[in-house]
Amino acid sequence: MRSTRRLTGVALCLALLAGACGDDGGGAEDAEDGPTTSGAATTGFPDDRCQANRDAGQLVFVTSFDYSAAASIIDVVVAEEQGFFEDVCLDVALQAGFSTANVPLLAAGQAQVTSLGSFSEVAVANAAGADIVAIAVEGKTSIEELLVEDGRGITELADLTGHRVGIKGAIPYSVRAMLAAAGVDESTLQQTEVGFNPVVLFETDIDALPVYKSNEPAQLDAAGYAGRYTVFDPRDDEVPASFAVYATSRDFAEEHPSAVADFLRAALHGFAWAVEHPEEAVAATLERSDPQLFFQPEGEAFRWATESALVLDTTPDGEPVGAVDLELLEAEVAYLVELGVIEEGSVDVASSADPAFVEEVTEEGKVAWLG
Fold first, then answer.
1. Phi and psi at residue 78, in whole multiples of 5°?
2. Is 32 a residue whose pLDDT tops 90?
3. Which CATH superfamily is domain 144-237 in?
4. In the chain, where does DSSP find H-type helix?
5. Phi, psi (degrees; rounded to nearest 5) at 104
6. What span, in angstroms and rounded, lies between the C-alpha atoms of 160 and 306?
7. 3-state DSSP call for residue 359?
């Protein structure tokens, strides 16, 4: 059984005041507009830990898809808006980004925490020489699925062999794993680059389209295509996968462990708040989003409803949201090896993901908040 270091309430305060976090060294420059690097802690938060967090300097958090109302993004937006980071003496600056570009920012020290699309992205990056650590995994299933237009003669995945698949860069890892498990030889697929409008499934000659469960299906249904496509979901085939992953660099995690843990404390508290107040949470993300991405209230509400439900549904009873399941991640990496994405032995899951941070800031399946 996995050991825990969970602290909450009085136990948290006593442990921290006794010096449990005294090893957090400082030295980072003060943020221009954030909390000062000295002074009393926020009410209910131990002074020593507060100072350790302030010594970490400003934490830059980079999102994985602009300011969409997605899990691991909306959490942080809410935490910033509601003052949860300030409550734990952290100065956090939010920066819009896209998942594929975030790992180099961590490596260069230009960001301290980021959200990523899946643990597979951590594994692929580390196999290529990066040294980042997944510190929380909210979604314990695939966020992607495959849509097939009805009437194309594809009633099961094996029928897809030799057909055309629309892609945006590449077929997602989880969908590739699902296809491999069904015996589909990926080399037989005719992969065609398509745009972001999912109606290409019906208006071009492609037969199948990988999509995000929290995005394209709602767009298609709103456009009048409901009931005209079949969904193949990796979750139905028990393909090990993940989404909404928080990551940091190993160096930052080792130098400022309390800041990393308390970032998650505030972010996961933000997740819970967003579940209770979905309209306000979605509105907060829309206010920050890039107008050129044309995020709409209905679409973002669907995104958050879908992703929060998936996160909660795939979190085992008694476990907190974000808990790191090393066995699940091992299985996810095994598929990457089978697909030839990475070489066997190139990734040590135990050192690429750390359950300790979520364990430290949760108790009995919930965030150990202040007071």
1. -65, -45
2. no
3. Periplasmic binding protein-like II (3.40.190.10)
4. 9-15, 47-55, 74-81, 84-87, 102-107, 119-127, 173-181, 200-203, 216-222, 250-255, 257-276, 278-288, 297-314, 326-338, 349-352, 356-360
5. -60, -30
6. 27
7. helix
Chain segment 219-274, per-residue pLDDT in tens: 999 999 999 999 999 999 999 999 999 999 999 999 999 999 999 999 999 999 99
**Nearest one of 271, 296, 282, 287 to 358, comparing CA atoms:** 271
d(CA 160, CA 34): 54
- Contacts of residue 210, defined as CB under 8 A and 6 or more positions apart, other chains included, come to 144, 145, 146, 147, 165, 166, 167, 168, 171, 172, 175
Domain 9-141+242-367: which CATH number of 3.40.190.10, 3.30.420.40, 3.40.50.720, 2.60.40.10: 3.40.190.10
User: Amino acid letter at 177?
Assistant: A
Q: What is the pTM (predicted TM-score) of this model?
A: 0.87
> What is the spatial distance between Cα 299 and Cα 122, in angstroms, rounded to a whole number?
28
Token digits of residue 280? 């306000």
Contacts of residue 85, Cβ cutoff 8 Å, sequence gap at least 6: 79, 91, 92, 263, 266
Query: What is the rounded distance in angstroms from the CA atom of residue 198 to the CA atom of residue 229?
Result: 12
C-alpha to C-alpha distance for 308 and 135, rounded to whole angstroms: 19
